[in-house]
From TrEMBL:
<keyword id="KW-0732">Signal</keyword>
<protein>
    <recommendedName>
        <fullName>Solute-binding protein family 3/N-terminal domain-containing protein</fullName>
    </recommendedName>
</protein>
<dbReference type="Pfam" id="PF00497">
    <property type="entry name" value="SBP_bac_3"/>
</dbReference>
<feature type="domain" description="Solute-binding protein family 3/N-terminal">
    <location>
        <begin position="32"/>
        <end position="119"/>
    </location>
</feature>
<dbReference type="InterPro" id="IPR001638">
    <property type="entry name" value="Solute-binding_3/MltF_N"/>
</dbReference>
<feature type="signal peptide">
    <location>
        <begin position="1"/>
        <end position="22"/>
    </location>
</feature>
Amino acid sequence: MHFTTNSLVFFLCVSASLCAIAKKSVETNLLAVANDNRLLQYYENGESKGPSIEILQAILKEAQLDAKVEFMPWIRAFTTASNNPNTLILSMIRTPERDDNFHWLIKLSNLSRVFISLTSKPENHVNNMHQAKQKLIAIVLGSAGYKE
């Protein structure tokens, strides 16, 4: 297989209205939304698992808060976090377009985007974004690379 990478960063972030929680003395219901990403967070045997979940649980414990975690497709998770107060999203790539719309809590990992093609099909190899724009490629709706 032929790989091309482009490094990105995943972040745990919250919607803009979440910062008001610290000022409230009343109980607030938090929702954490996530897509299934085996490297960071996933749902298995009735439990939320993965390093992002462990970090979230530690942050919530320290802040003496609780949150329900719901797994859903990426675009639904992003839309939910964008439009609903007191909503966290696990995990999202930080981009200039998203920067002002969220409070970014913690860097979770580095990420490499890759183009994969068969070595037996050199005409399909992609070495840069310019070449990628000449090809038919698949990408997750609403993902950071969706608008590039």
